Amino acid sequence: MSVTKKRKSPGTRWLAYLVLLAGAAAFLYPFVWMISASLRNLEEIAVSGMNIWPQHWRWENYAKALTAFPFGRYLVNTLITTVLPIIGTVFSCSLVGYAFARLRVKGSGFLFLLVLSTMLLPGEVTMIPQFILFKKLGMLDSLYPLIVPAFFGSPFYIFLFRQFYSRLPVGLEEAAVIDGCGYFKIWRTIFLPLSKPALTGVGVMMFMGAWNNFMGPLIYINSDRWKTLTLGLAGFQGTYSTDTNLLMAASIVITLPCIILFFSAQKAFMEGLTFSGSKES
Fold this sequence. Notes:
Elements: H1 10-38, H2 42-48, H3 60-67, H4 71-102, H5 108-117, H6 123-136, H7 144-147, H8 155-166, H9 170-178, H10 183-194, H11 196-211, H12 215-220, H13 229-239, H14 244-264, H15 266-274
Helix pairs in contact: 1-14, 3-14, 4-8, 4-11, 11-15, 13-14
């Protein structure tokens, strides 16, 4: 019995396009205004209203914004607290996800549910115990509290890797076992190279979260030496609260890497979340 799809009329299709276009414009306008404000002086911003086209393009605002605070030092700290957590999360979560997906051990289902149940705990609940722990370890006012937790896994990313690995063919694992490979070697040489979509999806989400992390540095960092870009931007805003154009210029520079990364890895990111092209084993 064949099922015929009901075709939408051209008017309905154009109406859907208009609604999507209006929604995209509503979300895009604040970012466009931020770019416009970064290229104006304060007088133009005060009288521009909703106008987004600058009368005089002031590219020097970016140079002033980046020299108003130690951008280079904050950038290095941000890269450290972004790249290392990505490496730690990918290593720990993919390894644990592989174990949950492929190792048939009694009680593994209960342990997996126990790991997922930790997602129900809000960050505010574990914030104080973590602070006390790092204080006892003498790691306050350093980058360690922003890096070390990533090497102990995240329940959401463990779930993503577990779902991805459970859909890979069993024949790959059986052939490796016949060749004498152990579980760790199977994960490292077979499953990890095949999990590029999942790795990309987790990497992009981790980059977004770590790069824009503000609460963590605010809690654990006190000295100017270890501040990140988000913390530096907050201080910049407090010092130059009336210089909206410089504040917008600094915000554009800090936001730009996230935008470039998302659009460059968009296809692999969506594949990693939807697991397209994978089949149930």
